[in-house]
Fold:
Amino acid sequence: MDGLHQANGVLLSADITSLFDVTVQTIRKDLNELSELGLVRRVHGGIKLPSSNKNVSFSNRTVMNLAAKQNIAHKVVELLPENTSVFLGIGTTPQQVAEALSSHPGLTVVTNNINVALTLCNNTKIQTHLAGGKVRANDQDMMGPETTAFMSKFNIQYGIFGVGGLNQKGQLLDFSPEESSVSRTIIENSEERILVADHSKLTRYAPVITGALKDVDMLIMDATSEPIRKFCHELQIELFEVGPVPERM
Structure:
């Protein structure tokens, strides 16, 4: 996927076969599978990045950059004290954080992420509060005014959330106003705000501006860009780059 971004969003089949030293017939099946997952779009002679303003489904996003998300999650666990309260927002990176926190002592967790709640409810020593609202089947979370109203009742020590995209201007982007409202609620009701994002968010378009890097206290990524490092330095945001370095396609 990084190769697609480097090639301005388009890669020819001939370039891919040369890169991996395989035949067109061998690579065609893989490209078709990636297209069916919504990760790329098939075009004549190759592939390109999907052009939709909508996010890829939760189940498909779960397997994307998994090692990076797990490294980010383990860093969160290192940073969080015991017996604390946590917001966990939507998305697959917060879900990996929940997996890593599943045995962390004395947590109180508030979330609208159904998979987060299912993961943490297995530990009776973790108090888990799941916000109500409208279920988004494609994203496996809860959304709407009921969701944000419930989350707004809490004063939380650590707000952990992801974004649809993080552009080079330092803007936090989401795919819908509803997603943006949940992230804003986490930002506004947390003492420490922790943004978790893998490197793919740096080149990913999303249409709604949720906020800016100045709204967070910590940024945890597997790898980032020089403009984002500069923003973090100027804004005194704690930046953690945890690897692994993304593989080139």
Observations:
- Confidence is low (pLDDT under 50) at residues 56-61, 245-249.
- The chain has two domains: 2-51, 60-241.
